[in-house]
## 1
Amino acid sequence: MMNYLIVGSGLYGAVFAYLATKIGKKCLVIEKRHELGGNIRCDNIDGINVHTYGAHIFHTSNKKVWDFVNQFAQFNRYTNSPVAKYHGKLYNLPFNMNTFYAMWGVTTPQEALAKIEEQKRQSGIIEPKNLEEQAISLVGRDIYEILVKEYTEKQWGRKCTELPPFIIKRLPVRFTFDNNYFNDSYQGIPIGGYNKLIEGLLSGIEAVADTDFFSDRSKWESAADKIVFTGKVDEFFDYKFGKLEYRTVRFETEELDVQNYQGNAVVNYTSHEEPFTRIIEHKHFEPENQSYSQNKTIISREYSSEWHDGTEPFYPINDEKNSELYKKYAELATHEANLIFGGRLAEYKYYDMDDVIEKAMKDFKAIEGTE
């Protein structure tokens, strides 16, 4: 009999299992995929660590979380500086003075701000009611039309006027020549890939892949005193109120006989002309890695679409309809005394990696009274 059955070996489950084991609890981690690690799983192909489920750049301002992950892996100094491509022209992201110069030819923060204020004034927007209005209020109509509108509609499969304004609020806007996407104090990628982090967290803990909780639910529900569930909350309750909606991502990964395909780890394609949202070139995440062939590179094109049964749920769609539906499931979850629901799918919430680690620590402390 285990103290904890952890369903899912992503960051939330792995961190919870590590903390529980550290205080002497017996844990079993089960994972329905073929490999452990959830969405941060990497595959090593010809010496290149490929981010199998999309680009993951660790960033945080929480020193406690940063020190925690550095116990298990050495992090490099990778800085996320994506580039956007629109009809053959390149623009720096996040929105900064390099972007404004490429867009308008302005060279000072005052000129850039004046241009944005002029376009915001022309739009007549006072209180943004949707993503489109929020974006125009932040960066003006030109940048919205070229760098936000079509990219966002590809990503979410909905018109920007149908999406809530908070989605765009997390994008930085700077009036400096700084291409660093994140404002956090700490940033990097584990040298050797994210598998190093997962292996460190699960070291000495029984963890099995190819094991679906729902294939023998009664067996697993009786296997431990408590269950930490990180899967889809609506699936746990047999879709009692209906299915929550998600966006999924399909990855088209290709090995090329070139040394350097695009010169950057992340290039966003913001026009409808291309069906994919971005191209990732994985070797640029670990420039210090020299174990691969210099004449090879691996790229992944990302295609966003609506989730359906049989595909992977990636991004919760936190519009009004789905938020109301989730509240019903969250209410059911409160009545499950020996169940802990945690992570992106179980809480129907988008999490950055540092946030999900912090949440796992907080939940564990609330249950066990220690960290």
## 2
Amino acid sequence: MDISGLIENQRTYFQSGATRDKDFRISMLRKLQAAVKANEELINTAMKQDLNKCADEVYMTETGLVLDELKYHIRHAAGWMKERTVRTPLVQFPSRSFVSPEPFGVSLIMSPWNYPVLLCLDPLIGAISAGCTAVVKPSAYTPATSSALAHILGAIFPPEYIAVVEGGREQNAELLEQKFDYIFFTGSPSVGHLVMEKASRHLTPLTLELGGKSPVIVDETADIRIAARRIAFGKVLNAGQTCVEPDYLFVHEHVKADFVAEYKKALKEFFPDGDMSTMNVIVNDKHFNRVKALLESGTIVAGGRTDPSRRFIEPTLLDNVSLDSPIMQEEIFGPILPMITYTDIEMCIEYIVGQPRPLALYLFTSDAKQEKRVLSACSFGGGCINDTIIHIATSYMPFGGVGASGMGSYHGKKSFDAFTHYRSIVKKATWFDMPVRYRPYTSFKRRLLRLFLN
């Protein structure tokens, strides 16, 4: 594929003004909505092949969320596109001030392998509703899903509007050498550094959705059955290959034994008769071997079995984990949960604030003072009180990281905002020209200025 030529064609198409029309944008969102519905079985088959992901989980975490986001944009995008009148300072009388949204232009969307449909199409929805063109680069680590996305998008959009570039590092590198008007990247912090460096050459604005080690705290007042079940859900989901997975657990010593018992119970309920054949697998051998090695970072108290033939790792709970162990030095991205016992919440807070700011934080408590203390002390992208993961599954709140876990946010209107530049415009009347700003400055003009600007 001639990537440079593709981008030039998109730039020509964007500059024609075709993508700015309100009806065009809404119709393209509807076209994508219909295509996702029509190709649900294709997506299910591809994700089964890549990650052993069952159809129910595909809908819950991928296609269903995409369809929900599409519905939200179809309903609200027309309103977001409108100019918004704002107040005008008296010193600028007579005039009208308004904010005018305009699309950035030709955008690049680089999506990861762990939720290859959701994390590709959700940003694309924002680009379409904002009026941009887009080059979409799905991950080579999930080839069947990437091929399905290329088929779906290629069948409904011309390449000068929306194009899919498949491939691996060579294609990623070539894309990042091009000049885009906006870049949206989801992936690891290490690659995020490279993307930002490349974007800086052209002063290209960007969104970085990264990751990090997201902590969980279970205090002595928590509902332990609920806590164990919801944390286990967060770890089993996609085999822990989730950017907001509960990465490690601080559990109060008074409830630790009960938590371990309830966690084991939850896993038995999730997998009747111990049949884990439908659970997701690790994406490739490299990551399987990396995650498997982390099992040696503590004492296995639940799970621990592995099957290299299908890259399967059983949901595992680790005890006796030290803060300097290998599993505490990197994002796990697997179904292993290391536990650290605590007695004083200040120890948890001190550790969390001493680390790079995480993408998520989860606190299980019924103590309002404890909740307030943790939220006021710890900086993180987003999170939950008494649950995990679900804060990302909404179009009504922005999702994004802070510091090392990301830059910018999206979902709902924030997705529209991400691909939009807001122009501030003053339209000045000509029937009167207030002389106060013009030279020569006099004591009378000075008094007027102080009156208007005080």
## 3
Amino acid sequence: MSQRTIGVTEVALRDAHQSLMATRMSLEDMVDACEDIDQAGYWSVECWGGATYDACIRFLNEDPWVRLRKFRELMPNSRLQMLLRGQNLLGYRHYEDMVVEKFVEKSAENGMDVFRVFDALNDPRNMERAMAAVAATGKHAQGTICYTISPLHTVEGYVKLAGQLLDMGAQSLALKDMAALLQPQPAYDIISAIKQTYGDVQINVHCHATTGVTLVSLMKAIEAGADVVDTAISSMSLGPGHNPTESLVAMLEGTPFTTNLDHDRLIRIRDHFAKVRPKYAQFESATLVDTDIFQSQIPGGMLSNMENQLKAQGAGDRIKEVMAEVPLVKADAGHPPLVTPSSQIVGTQAVFNVLMGKYKVLTGEFADLMLGYYGECIGPRNPEVVEIARAQAKKEPITCRPADLLEPEWDRLVSEASKLEGNDGTPEDVLTYAMFPSVAPGFFATRADGPKNVGKTAEQLAAESQSKQDAAGAVKGPIKYRVTLGGREHSVTVERA
């Protein structure tokens, strides 16, 4: 039986620890797995972008550009892949076009190969400049469709968006399911429709595991013609993370498909991260499976964010009201997919509505979303809420590409960054300042101290294990035995070490 090879993107070095342990994994806990990852036969290795840049400078005192260069050095045979939020890059606002071009150029120079470019609203205008910048470097531009469900989202709509991304130069397409909403039949229907419409375009499928159905969705996507799928090595999988790499390999046995991954290498990668993961247990989500997402469409990270906001207001008991409000706010905004930053914007507004009354107060970000400053959504916005936003924000709605309104900012960013203590004068440092202007100054000032690992040490883990044994009923203090020797009974006391 001739088999079609399915490419695999390993996400253990980025999205897996972002999803499972709040992006806290230190580079030093990844390097020893890199040789096996490099030799295992993956289509690509996702290792940068997303929230890693933010976490590096905010929590780990680590230069994200050094991390990228280290991965390039340790994995010379691999396509390195990153997640890029289109005109948002890795920050939380739109950047002027020259900043987008500089960021892509420097990422490519430092070792990045595959740029998965997405926009939280699926607005192609917010992806176009980043995609063109990738093409200009000669690297691989992957146009991304964020998957969500609503009365307005159809197979035909996703096929149309795929065509728009191909028209702007996408070398491959990614169907990105960040909330584990992609059920098996829609996966089959969307992939097969794109293949039938556009022929031999490469399609990558990215699913989270949170709802428990998406390993089956990957199978149906492969049967429909998907070329590459994203997985995480089993010791870094499941929960709000991803489906296990080894499970995918096993699932394809006896089918017309194979991954050709090196089994022995996978076992070594698995064993490495099995040792590392317990160090970060304090950052792990308690969620294992959550099928409520099919109704609420709320990704796990968004849910925990809303819970924390409510607890801070002494209203932790009102989470169910907020969960019911989220789909209503989402509909008023034109049904944006719930992914960074739209998930935070919609979720926070739902909290405000429950605590203060419906649209009595809008967050600045939600007002901007309603007025078009983040781009266009698939559906019309509620005109009454648009009027509230206009009155509160004191600005008019827009229909143009949001970045068209931005003034050139590169020279200003260079000037401001150059004044910061610890700045090394490189364009990379200017970009770090541009992404996170409030965090970068502190990072530059302490960078020379070197990275810090926020995971627990082996000694701390051993002490915790011992205390758990004690708590589970292990005997404390000296242990007394009665033994009989030569017909005589003796009492023996053994001190615990």
